[in-house]
Amino acid sequence: MMNKLVVAGILLASVSGAVMADAKNVVLVHGATVDGSGWRDVYNLLKAKGLSVSVVQLPHSSMADDVAATRLVLSQQKGPTVLVGHSYGGAVITEAGTDDTVKALVYVAAFQPEKGETLGELSQRFPMKVSLKMLDTTHFVPDPAAYHDSLGADLPVALTSFMSASAKPMSVETFGVKLQAAAWHTKPSYAIVTTQDRTIAPALLKWMYTRSGAKVTELRSSHMAYISHPQEVAKVIMEAVKAVD
Length: 245
Prior knowledge:
The protein has 245 residues and is α/β, with parallel strands linked by helices. It has one domain: Rossmann fold (3-Layer(aba) Sandwich). Helices cover 40% and strands 18% of the residues. The protein has a six-stranded parallel β-sheet, with helices on both faces. The protein has a three-stranded antiparallel β-sheet with strand order 5-6-7, with no helix packed on it. The radius of gyration is 19 Å and the shape is globular.
């Protein structure tokens, strides 16, 4: 008769193996001047699929700090992880995505820079249309008067008014920082082009995603697609999740 301890060990190993094999994690990274709360509907949809979902809160003190905050959350994941970024968050995941736990990247109306490239350089290639309000010589928020039309024309005005009132200051210096790495060279990437985007030009989104070879989904949406079209965004994330071995 097989020793009970041996049997218990085999069963434990089987259970542990099953858990690790089935583990799917998603880490969501927000864009500039907002926080992670906008991911709530996407979070709920992914959780309903049985996924482990984490939301990064970027400090916005510097790009290096934002990347470090993302890596800190990634270090808590067990098993393969899909890393998702919106807008400026795309630059963050491009660098933080080199982490070994990350198996795929999802760009939601997001910057996808090359190593050594700056967001300023990309923005000059296809100028950003959003109006900014300078708070001092180095920090800005979106212009409250243009917030709805520029960032979230397909969202309720009451919501964009609150988002504007709670906007998180961002440093212009961030747009001059050169990316230290570009994870999309070695990790498969999925991308959403927001065709009604008045913040990042759809032409820029298409140019970046063509350059990287990302699998592209076009969505008739404003820049804030993850809030206005959470089901469609969650569907693209799930596609990336299912492709992870």
